[in-house]
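BUG: 3D viewer hangs when loading the predicted structure for this chain

Environment: internal workstation, default settings.
Expected: structure renders.
Actual: progress bar stalls at 90%.

Input used:
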Amino acid sequence: MGLEHNTDTAHSPDVAEMRALYRAAEARAARLRFIIEVRNLLDAQAFETVAPEVLSRLADFAGAMQARLVFAPLQGEVPVQLAVGLSRNPEGDSILFASEDDGADLHLTLLGPSTGRTIDADDRQTLEVVAGQLADACNLERQAAEKQALLGDLERQRSELAALVAQLIQAQEQERQRVALDLHDGSAQLAAGLSYRLQDLAARVGEAHALKPEIDQLAALARHSVADLRAAIADLRPPELDDLGVAAALRTRLDAIDGMEVIADLDACADRWPASTGIIFYRVAQEAITNVIKHAGARRLIVRLFEDSAGEAHLEVIDDGKGIGEARQPQNQEWGARLGIVGMRERLALLGGSIEIGAGASGGTCVRAFAPLQQETISG
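Structure tokens produced before the viewer hung:
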């Protein structure tokens, strides 16, 4: 009994169909590799550097004689045009592919002979993907350049602001110096002269003279006036601020306080701060300390001055007095302005800093000020 082999063609594999499927799979893989290679090129280098290489590969992929790319420049209004390849018969060439997005800033065109290879739907889709990659890379580079330009403008504005702050502070301090000098050479000298004359007059009239007590009182008033004027002159422009720095000037100011316990934690590094920062922090501390002395009824005052690891200057003025809430009376709605809070805030704003005022941990008031150490050093 013999065996029969069934050669029914309905169940045998179609070799031609299998080959067609294999070739289609290879074509899809080749298109995918092409897309990935272009993406890698665009990611690895700057757009304008790699664009000619991508154009050359696009021309080879599409069988084009020439590839043209037109895109908006990073700066200016004249479009940039790149071309790869040279047409042998420009009059007989036709457009094999052109990106169709009218709103895009980038346009890709592939030119070739009208009798050449036609671009099928799959190839056109691949070219559209690559054109989109080119547009994305171009836009990303332009955005990066615009961001860098904006950062440059911001840095220039910061530098200009720093220069203006320095000039403003310098003008303020020069005016203070002028007023202090005028007081020293004018009113202070007159008050000192009056004090000496009254003391001399009291000595000459003798103890038995009827006007001796009044002359002594006038002499005492004159001496107090001289002391007050000298204190005002020192507050207007303490010499330590110019000669030694903000920490030394603050220490001198705190050493002169009587009637309360004073704790000074002043970092010596503050004496090396830019002049504009040192001057403003001294003025803020001066105002806060004056508020404590005049209004808080405090028994203890703590003043800290330091620089943190982030490069910011810090000032803390803490007292154990009545506290900001108790000091603010309903009948006096201008308390904040009277205590100079607005002035302190405005001074710190010149440095890009700010101030916080609130209740202390154990009562009283805590004033905290901070600002970046980025200003230019000023003189005067």
